[in-house]
């Protein structure tokens, strides 16, 4: 299964706690930090909830 690279492009300041928890769970700490996560249904669902905060691309 392929991996996807998630990059935090907007701050979580002022965001609801559930969105902050998702960002932390994906391993993103600061703006412009990136994490490579597996491309499965659970990760896609989490990314969909914070798609306005992140940039997603396929990882090599």
Account of the protein in words:
This protein is α+β, with helices and mostly antiparallel strands and 60 residues long. The chain has one domain (3-59): Ribosomal Protein L30, Chain: A, CATH 3.30.1390.20. It is 30% helix and 27% strand. The protein has 2 helices and 3 strands, in the order E-H-E-H-E. The chain has helices at 17-25, 41-49, and strands at residues 3-8, 34-38, 54-58. Strands 2-1-3 form a 3-stranded antiparallel beta sheet, with no helix packed on it. It is globular. The model has no long low-confidence stretch (mean pLDDT 96).
Biggest sheet: strands side by side, in what order? 2-1-3
Query: Biggest sheet: strands, sense, closure?
Result: 3 strands, antiparallel
Q: What class would the helix/strand composition place it in? A: alpha+beta
Count of β-strands? 3
Shape field? globular
The residue-averaged pLDDT reads 96
Question: Going by CATH, what is the homologous superfamily?
Answer: Ribosomal protein L30/L7
Helical content stands at 25-40%
Which key features would you list for this structure?
single chain, 60 residues, alpha+beta, three-stranded antiparallel β-sheet, 3 strands, globular
């Amino acid at each position: 299964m392929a991996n996807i690279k998630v990059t935090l492009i907007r701050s979580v300041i002022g965001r609801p706690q559930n969105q902050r928890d998702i960002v932390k769970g994906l391993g993103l700490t600061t703006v412009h930090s990136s994490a490579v996560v597996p491309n499965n249904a659970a990760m896609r669902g989490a990314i969909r909830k914070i798609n306005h905060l992140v940039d997603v691309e396929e990882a090599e």
